[in-house]
Amino acid sequence: MSTQSLIPFGPQHPVFPEPIQLRLVLEDEKVVEALPALGYVHRGLEKIAQQKDILQDVFLVERVCGICSFIHSLTYCRGVETLMGLTVPDRARFLRVVWSEMSRLHSHLLWLGLMADSFGFENLFMQAFRLREKVLDLMEATGGNRVIMSSCCIGGVRRDLTADLVQMVRTTLDEVERELEPIITTMRDDYTVRERTVGIGRLTKEEAHELGAVGPVARGCGIPMDFRTTGYEAYGDLEFKPVVFEGGDCYARCKVRLYEMPQSISLMRGALDKLPAGPLAVPVKGNPDGETISRCEQPRGEVIYYMRANNTRNLERLRIRTPTFANLAPLLKMLPGCQLADVPVIVLAIDPCISCTER
Amino acid sequence: MFGLLKKTLANLVSGPVTRDYPGTKRPAFDGSRGHLDMDPAVCIYCGACSKRCPTKAIAVSREPKEWKLEVGRCIVCGHCVEVCPKKCMWLDTAHGLARDAVQDARSGDSQGNS
Predict the structure, then answer these.
(1) Which of B17, B30, B78 sits opposite A150 (nearest CB)?
(2) Nearest C-alpha of chain B: how many angstroms from A345?
(3) For B95, which residue in chain A has the nearest alpha carbon?
(4) Which residues, in sequence order, are bridge partners of residue A178?
(5) Which residue(s) pair with A304 in the sheet?
(6) Phi-psi region of A321 (alpha: psi -120 to 50; beta: other; left: phi over 0)
(7) Residue A315, H or E segment
(8) Among all residues of chain B, which has the CA nearest to that of A131?
(9) Among A44, A76, A287, A337, which has the minimal tally of Cβ within 10 Å of its Cβ?
């Protein structure tokens, strides 16, 4: 008869980029239950947001997450623009798409490296990070910083892409696309990768729907749910079809992210092709009033901002629901029944972002 | 098999993909946000930058005329540069904090032009 034991997985663990603890109840090597413990990087961001004015909050929400920072600021700005009735100029809408997809590309490359690292594929980890460096260079050249670009502002964008920069983005995207191809092939077809991911961490379509999975976790279960299909910002003017795979295992989730990378590149190219001339931002006058919900598609899924204003320069409430938070319940459903050695792979397959979740 | 051999030979003759840092440094891109700088000769000490700074890193006083930047608090967002009425501030591409102001940041002392 087997006995149960409790293993604390995290908060400091080689596969976790950020601290979260999973208390795993094991029977021999098999996980029977997983209990999460959160709160290691809570920063009280919502309280600070009430003290800063609406323009300063843009820089604050960018720091919710170091990976998808642009889309956080975009979601926030879209919310305040709704409250104030601002219409964003066309050029800004297209530039927002370019930077959103740049964020997605670098986030997915980071995930790819960490995922490869989780099952010991060090070479692929280094190749992914080498490639990510080119995208980070693009972000520095266009936004001014490698990760936190601060290029989004209420009413539009703060920076413009000159013709030289557009050409640089195009050239780099060609290089990245060329070098991405063998990486995708390896991750998709390699025997070892398939052994570690196929059939691991299975979640059915119904379970994913019931537990509220978002982003690549939902799309890997065959649910075609992507907020970009609603055509926010300039996505409506570009050709976009969500990447969906059936299967509901780690392999399907990996494939969704792998194929989203070339899709991001083509979306960026499409946005640059159609980039209209015109102003970058509209002036912000007056104070926001009322309440709204703003949503955007992050690399990890849909992020939701609830904000309430009372006709002052400060927001009364700012509540953020991040995609990793939504994906934690599905994660706890995936873990029971798996082997202890598969836990890192399953956790990395939801691409957890703990700083986002805890704010 | 031949694909692997081809790759091995290509890797043998190609150089490293990483730079020989710090011997070889990548030049900063134009418009990269390195550190904040200002020209005291143009500044009118109005305090607009100080009021708008999201991290309260800038302290300005009219009498005596003083403009201080707490380097460790500055997030180099450039909000102050946008609101400055005299355009006396700019963002330099050199990463000043990492280069020469580490001690100031650690001790919490303010460093700036006055």
Answers:
(1) B78
(2) 27
(3) A145
(4) none
(5) A295, A321
(6) beta
(7) strand A315-321
(8) B17
(9) A44
Distant-in-sequence, close-in-space partners of A134: CB < 8 Å, separation ≥ 6: A172, A175, A176
Residues A213-241, mean pLDDT to the nearest whole number: 89
Report H helices in chain A: 45-51, 54-61, 69-84, 90-118, 122-143, 163-189, 191-197, 205-210, 215-219, 250-273, 323-334, 343-349, 354-358
**Is-contact B55 B75, C-beta < 8 A?**
yes
Contact list in A for residue B32 (CB cut-off 8 A) is 140-141, 144-145
How many angstroms separate the CA atoms of A179 and A261, rounded? 12
| Residue B9 C-alpha, separation from nearest chain A C-alpha, in angstroms | 17
ipTM above 0.85, yes or no: no
CA A91 to chain centre: 24
In whole angstroms, give the CA distance from residue B58 to residue B52: 9
Please indicate if any CB of chain B lies within 8 Å of the CB of A137: yes
- State the pTM of this model: 0.89
CB contact under 8 A, A141 and B77: no
Look up residue A302 and give its amino acid: E
Which token pair is A225? 């749910």
List, in order, residues 6 or more apart from B11 with CB less than 8 Å away. Answer: none
Find the residue in A nearest to B92 (Cα): A144
**Model confidence band, residue B101 (pLDDT cutoffs 50, 70, 90):** low
Mean per-residue pLDDT, A332-342: 88
- The closest alpha carbon to A76, from A306, A269, A235, belongs to A306
pLDDT tens digits, residue range A147-178?
Answer: 888 889 998 999 888 899 999 999 999 999 99
B78 CB near a chain A CB, below 8 Å? yes
Instruction: Give the integer Cα–Cα distance in Å for A233 and A74.
Output: 10
Other CB atoms within 10 Å distance of the CB of residue A42? 11
Longest dimension (CA), chain B: 77
Q: For chain B, percent helix, then strand, then coil, each to nearest 5?
A: 30, 15, 55
Structure tokens of B47? 């305090």
DSSP conformational letter for A35: E
- Best residue in A124, A145, A168 to probe B by mutation, most B CBs within 10 Å? A145
Contact indicator for A95, A157 with CB cutoff of 8 Å: yes
pLDDT greater than 80 at residue B105? no
CA A66 remoteness from chain centre = 10
**How many CB atoms neighbour CB B114 within 10 A?**
11
